[in-house]
Amino acid sequence: MSTPLENWVEESARLTRPSKIVWCDGSQSEFESLADEMLRDGTFLDLNPHTYPRCYLHRSNPNDVARTEGLTFICSTRKEDAGPTNNWMAPAEAKEKVRPLFHAAMKGRTMYVVPYIMGPANSPYSKIGVELTDSPYVVASMRIMSRMGKVALDQLGNSADFVPGLHSLGDLNPERRFILHFPEERLIWSVGSGYGGNALLGKKCFALRIASWMAREQGWMAEHMLILGLEDPSGKVTYMAAAFPSACGKTNLAMMVSALESQGYRVWTVGDDIAWMHVAADGTLRAINPEAGFFGVAPGTNAKTNPNVMAALRHDTIFTNVGLTSSREPWWEGMDANAPNGLMDWHGKPYSADQTAAAHPNSRYTVPAAQSPSISPHWEDPAGVPISALIFGGRRARVAPLVYESRDWRHGVFVGATMASETTAAATGAVGVTRRDPMAMLPFCGYNMADYFGHWLAMEPKLKNPPKIFHVNWFRRGADGKFLWPGYGENVRVLKWMLERIEGRTAADDTPIGFVPTASSLTLDGLRISRETLAELLRVDGGDWAEEEKATGEFFAKFGARLPAAIHHEHRALGERLSRASVGAR
Ligand code: GTP
Ligand code: SPV
Ligand code: MN
């Protein structure tokens, strides 16, 4: 008798016709032989073995350097279940359209069977996926990003309880690129891309799009959130989870070196991109990081902004689309002031100073989580860590103050639902355009976002002490166009204010949008920031917010009658508070 997994592998091989099938065990020796093969065919370039041992550079096809949201589909039976913010195709139509692209797609190639666990190996919250892929780069990346190989196969046994994901590079032509999710079948099909979230199917496809659908059915949450622990001077650690859109600072917040370390505040990393959160028997919200590695944005990372990442990267790391120095070390914009002589750009061409960038703006490192000096001793705790605060945030040149606290859970859900952020290079398309991105889940929610807001609202009564919900913005700019807040390790000052709010120990101004720190309630010692800059960072501008309230209404209108009444109610209440305040100000 063959197992459900064997049957599916066989069926997929009949479709894709690989010349060979390899079942991956996840061992170091397996990785080494894959790496050797990739060095031979140019998929991997080796880096300096003395300064970057066992590290490799991968250059992807220049047309395949970011997630492609326009080619990503939710294939639910009913269109309304995918909702107005997702691309949708009917399941049968999607399969008919895309199956031919898989036909004999692996001819002359190897099909790798990649079993993986999302979550710690022995956690009741973990789930198993299996990816079939013809990309050895994907295999090597999945080995870092998940618990891959024998450990997953042993846990699966003969069970059919796994999320299947079929992936082929195809011909890498964007015209023939599709990322399809069949949430009712819990099936993923991806063809035509080898990049990150398009191709490492455990990450955005499973752990967010498919998992968010499962989480709603089963009463838990799958979120685009980092998880960190803030240690206070007494040694107590308070855990927080934060949702910022792609390339808006999750990895950097989760792995920061605290500017208040001398005062006894430090940050421990549990996860940097995805949180699966369940209500435990005692009514606490418990979060696990389903991933085992970090797929982080390289540009902007340096010894000052993020020493933990810089230390983590020095061995056993894969770099994608960064520059290469003459001493065969990785290089990217923002690593140090000047591009070194003899630099090659991410295409492999000599870099010249009139060029915009040596590294692609969405170039990345793939590194095992355990390599970070900041990794929490509880990062693989099967029960997860208890969450005391949820944080939303985005990239806003104006409007959103440095930090504010929502009035209660329901208002906090509204704050998350009204998030907006300027787009980044993490997805193809224009950069710097403000778009609504509720809970940083716009590209990742596997179902109708109106129902998703409803699901958030429905979590509250299950929680004994619902976490406080905050909103942050590290990216507000002054009249000169420069960031007003120094960011990175200094962000701990904002986390400390949140901690003191959780513990009821510090002051805030009650504004129409929520509770904003008083000028004296933020710990600013050791930071040179003028009183005017601070006032601007914390300012709630009546005109900006009136526009914001209007834009929010237009966004919500897309959802029609499906939008929960509580969200309408919060929207009206915000409008009323804003107009009362503007009358008061007159
Ligand atoms: P994804 O992996 O795409 O989900 O991104 P992310 O949310 O983890 O973002 P990441 O921490 O990688 O940061 C993205 C970019 O923003 C990098 O270039 C960082 O250097 C920059 N950045 C992160 N935190 C801050 C901050 O506090 N202030 C400023 N000015 N820039 C920041
Ligand atoms: C993101 O874009 O949010 C990422 C990178 O974390 S990717 O894996 O490409 O989704
Ligand atoms: Mn992300």
Q: Can you give a write-up of this model?
A:
With 586 residues, the protein is of the alpha/beta class. The chain contains 16 helices and 29 strands. Strands 1, 4, 5, 6, 7, 8, 9, 10 and 11 form a nine-stranded mixed sheet that branches. Strands 12, 13, 14, 15, 16, 17, 23, 24 and 27 form a nine-stranded mixed sheet that branches. The longest helix is centred in the last third of the chain and has 21 residues, at 565-585. The protein binds guanosine-5'-triphosphate, sulfopyruvate (SPV) and manganese (II) ion.
Low-confidence stretches: none
Strand content: 15-25%
N/C terminus separation = 79 Å
Specify Rg, calculated over alpha carbons: 23 Å
Q: What structural class is derived from the secondary structure elements?
A: alpha/beta
**Helical segment tally?**
16
Please report the total strand number as a whole number.
29
Largest sheet: 9 strands, mixed
Set out the fold topology:
Blueprint: H1 4-16, E1 20-23, H2 28-41, E2 45-46, E3 56-58, E4 72-74, H3 79-82, E5 87-88, H4 91-102, E6 110-118, E7 127-133, H5 136-145, E8 147-148, H6 150-156, E9 163-168, E10 178-182, E11 187-191, H7 196-199, H8 202-218, E12 221-223, E13 226-231, E14 237-243, H9 250-254, E15 266-271, E16 275-279, E17 285-288, E18 293-297, H10 307-312, E19 318-320, E20 323-324, E21 330-331, E22 364-368, E23 385-393, E24 403-405, H11 409-417, E25 420-422, E26 434-436, H12 449-459, E27 468-472, H13 492-502, E28 508-511, E29 514-517, H14 531-538, H15 542-557, H16 565-585
Parallel strand pairs: 1-6, 3-19, 4-5, 4-10, 7-9, 9-11, 14-23, 23-27
Antiparallel strand pairs: 2-3, 6-7, 6-8, 10-11, 12-16, 13-14, 13-15, 16-17, 17-23, 18-22, 19-22, 20-21, 24-27, 25-26, 28-29
Helix pairs in contact: 2-5, 11-16, 15-16
Bound molecules: guanosine-5'-triphosphate, sulfopyruvate (SPV) and manganese (II) ion.
